[in-house]
Amino acid sequence: MRKKLEISLVRTKVYDLLKEEILSGEIHLGQRLNVRKLSEELGISPTPVRDALLALSADGLVRVVPRVGFFVTELTENYINEIIESRIMVESFCLKKYFDEIRNSPDILKLYDEVKKVIDTENRKLFDESDEVLHMLIVKSSSNKTIIDFYEKLWDKIDLVRHLNKRYLDSNKEHLSIIESILKNEKESAIKFLLRHIENVKDETLKNLKTSKVTK
Ligand code: ZN
């Protein structure tokens, strides 16, 4: 019983560690993840490493090639299109259906200030944070646990491609338009601005995917 618990704790730790390294770009996209090598580096048995990699593959961050091994998911045009379509589906649905919840949320004014701060500071990290807060706020206002769970998994994939969006200051202006429409209670224009924003993110991501095929 105790042994089992230890194994699952180690697996969770390995999962968290690898996920962080993948999302931060420390482990490159497409890079092979060798179970034996990783378990040696971490000083643990191969089992929790393999389990963690399988869990990451269920999240879509790692790809399993039968009889070959594990690889960090490579970004393809198709993969990016899938993420964008899923975003449009979830975010536009939530913005439309839960518009009043979003508008009345105490977080929206705070977020408005954050977004304006990005304009003043041009701080990329601040932008990334407010980006996540805005899109999560739209989805979390649904209070629909199934949708939120789905979107949180999707966000990991969004995170994986986020560095390809180099026009963050333009994206930030788009965020401002979305938030201002919400605050002015203009639902249709908020939806229009959100859809335009996600389309722009798609175009930019695909453009930079083509020019920066080599991983960071
Ligand atoms: Zn955004």
Structure notes:
It is built from 10 helices and 3 strands, in the order H-E-H-H-E-E-H-H-H-H-H-H-H. With 216 residues, the protein is mostly helical. It folds into 2 domains: 2-72, Winged helix-like DNA-binding domain superfamily/Winged helix DNA-binding domain (Arc Repressor Mutant, subunit A, Orthogonal Bundle); 77-211, GntR ligand-binding domain-like (Four Helix Bundle (Hemerythrin (Met), subunit A)). The protein has a 3-stranded antiparallel beta sheet with strand order 1-3-2. The chain is elongated.
Summarize the structure.
The protein is 74% helix and 5% strand. By secondary structure, the chain is mainly alpha-helical.
Keywords:
5% strand; 10 helices; 74% helix; 2 domains; Four Helix Bundle (Hemerythrin (Met), subunit A); mainly alpha; Arc Repressor Mutant, subunit A; 216 residues; three-stranded antiparallel β-sheet; 3 strands; elongated; binds zinc ion
Set out the fold topology.
Layout: H1 2-23, E1 32-33, H2 35-42, H3 46-58, E2 62-65, E3 69-72, H4 77-97, H5 99-103, H6 107-121, H7 124-140, H8 145-161, H9 168-183, H10 187-211
Antiparallel strand pairs: 1-3, 2-3
Bound molecules: zinc ion.
